[in-house]
Amino acid sequence: MAKKKLVATSIDSTEQAEGVLAEIAAIDRKLTQVEVTMQEEIAAAKQKAAESKLAFEKRRKALADAVKKYATMNKPVLFEKHKSIQLAFGSFGFQASSGVQQMNGVSAEETIEHIKKFKFPEGIRIVEELDKEAVAKWPDERLALVGLRRVDKDTFWLKVNQEKLSAV
Predict the structure, then answer these.
(1) Phi, psi of 137 (to 5 degrees)
(2) Cβ(162)–Cβ(32) under 8 Å?
(3) Which of the two ends of the chain, N or C, has the fewest CB atoms closer than 10 A to its terminal CB?
């Protein structure tokens, strides 16, 4: 597809700016329509794909469950010498693992309190991050002291009045 060179619009009066804002509003409406149509098509495609793959997922799970049942029922014989079985189309086996979980009757909050009480701080994760809202209220001298500085921005904005354009 050939690239089109965008032609810059020169505005010499508020009347021309008004016309440009009206055109921007019309473009915004068209973009919204395109976005809505696109989202509807994406949602429909996702729904169709989900329905198409459901039967395959059910069948795959049933087959995997059958292999797991076979392996479990024959564990002493199949895994006497090896931890896994290698076949032409894949492999299966058992892998030992361990994890940590709450004891019955003990809440996570109680566990945290016990960790603090017995001074095991490595058992508690604390995430530190800069609070930009809090430091924005500091004076410039304090900001400089900790390696920050205040930056003022003058950001251009425009707001299209969709209600006025809809009435036209």
Answers:
(1) -85, -10
(2) no
(3) N
pLDDT by 10-residue block (mean), the chain, 168 residues: 66 91 92 97 97 95 94 92 90 88 92 93 90 93 91 78 71
- Give the pair of three-digit tokens for residue 100: 């940590």
Phi, psi of 87 (to 5 degrees): -125, 175
Which among 95, 101, 106, 107 has a CA at the least distance from the CA of 68? 95
User: 99 in helix, strand or coil?
Assistant: coil
Both tokens assigned to 147 = 């390696």
Q: Coil, helix or strand for 148?
A: coil
How confident is the model at residue 73, as a pLDDT? 94
| CB 92, CB 72: distance < 8 Å | no
Residue with tokens 């492999």: 91
Q: Taken in order 80, 85, 86, 88, is the CA torsion positive or negative?
A: positive
Q: For residue 87, what are its two tokens?
A: 């076949």
β-strand 90-93 against 84-87: which pairing, if any? Answer: antiparallel
